[in-house]
Amino acid sequence: FRYERDAERAVTDLNTRWFDRKPIYAELSPVTDFKEASCRQYELGECMRSGFCNFMHIKTLSPEYKKRLRERRKRFVFIKNIKMMMID
């Protein structure tokens, strides 16, 4: 998150939700640089531990998918602004 208040709001929101009939327990991490916590073997395609690995397996987004997400976000903001103008 860019702003701490947004992260806090997301955690508060998540802690009121359920998944598979179980409550979600979210918390903020004080870590700001996750590079040290990521699995080097996974980055090289060599980690055999899978779900038992103690390090994070970070999946990167393809440039095409990032572009799609940015375009969807622009559209969402545009539609939201139009709706706000209609309310006023």
Describe this structure in words.
- By secondary structure, the chain is mainly alpha-helical.
- Helix content is 45%, strand content 5%.
- The chain has 3 helices and 2 strands; from the N terminus they run H-E-E-H-H.
- It has helices at residues 4-14, 40-43, 63-87; strands at 18-19, 22-23.
- Strands 1-2 form a two-stranded antiparallel ribbon.
- The longest helix is centred in the C-terminal third of the chain and has 25 residues, at 63-87.
- The mean pLDDT is 90.
Radius of gyration computed on alpha carbons: 18 Å
Strand content: under 5%
The average pLDDT is: 90
Distance between the termini: 30 Å
Residue stretches low in confidence (pLDDT < 50, at least 5 long) are none
Largest sheet: 2 strands, antiparallel
Pattern of helices and strands: HEEHH
Secondary-structure blueprint of this entry?
Blueprint: H1 4-14, E1 18-19, E2 22-23, H2 40-43, H3 63-87
Antiparallel strand pairs: 1-2
Can I get a quick summary?
This protein is mainly α.
